[in-house]
Specification:
This protein is mainly α. The chain is built from eight helices and no strands. The chain has one domain.
């Protein structure tokens, strides 16, 4: 039973890896019919998916593999805050680059805000990690929760089912990080609250 719970925790951690959450956020925004997004072209949506997935997931992941090969990090889990400094810095550069390009493109403001929020979150985690190991997983899912709360309030639309699902996922992620001893309770809770408040600040 213990092995099964650890396996479940690992699966949850991989499925909802923080680097994947900007792409998940894009999916959520694209499926908000009430938002009046003008991007109806499947090709344009696919392009934005590809750009976001490549810059916010594939490139940082490739960098992590290179750091692992160079023995700068001992594993992809990067268990110490010291090991996370360079990967977080590189991720912040990639995220900032996409935010900059999105600001130049004619795309809906919700998409720009999503990426800007993700960038601010990565930078915040980078700075906090210099002194304290915060949960990036919880910061990421907290960001999605904060974004959807703000969108629901600003656009006056009912997103209760989405929010319930996100909070359930947040609970599962919190369980997984604690089960794997990746963080303590304070690091998990603070990470989640950081994500929520950064996105609320941007979207509200």
């Amino acid at each position: 039973m213990q092995n099964l719970s650890v396996l479940f925790a690992r699966i949850i951690s991989y499925l909802f890896h923080p680097l994947l959450l900007p792409t998940f956020g894009l999916f959520l925004i694209f499926n908000l019919d009430e938002a009046g997004l003008w991007i109806s072209s499947p090709e344009m949506r696919l392009f934005l998916y590809a750009v976001t997935f490549s810059i916010t997931f594939l490139l940082p992941l490739t960098n992590a593999f290179l750091l692992l090969k160079m023995k700068y990090i001992s594993s992809l889990e990067m268990k110490t805050k010291e090991e996370r400094k360079i990967p977080y810095l590189v991720a912040a550069i990639f995220y900032s680059s996409e935010s900059y390009f999105l600001m130049q493109w004619d795309v809906p403001v919700l998409i720009k805000a999503l990426m800007l929020g993700a960038t601010l979150l990565v930078v915040s985690v980078l700075l906090i990690n210099l002194f304290w190991k915060i949960s990036t997983h919880m910061a990421g899912i907290g960001g999605l929760c904060g974004m959807m709360i703000a969108i629901s309030y600003r656009l006056q639309i009912n997103l209760h089912p989405v929010l319930i699902a996100l909070f359930i996922i947040a609970g599962l992620i919190a369980f997984s990080r604690l089960k794997l001893s990746a963080h303590d309770s304070a690091q998990v809770y603070v990470g989640f609250l950081l994500g929520v408040f950064v996105q609320l600040f941007l979207f509200l």
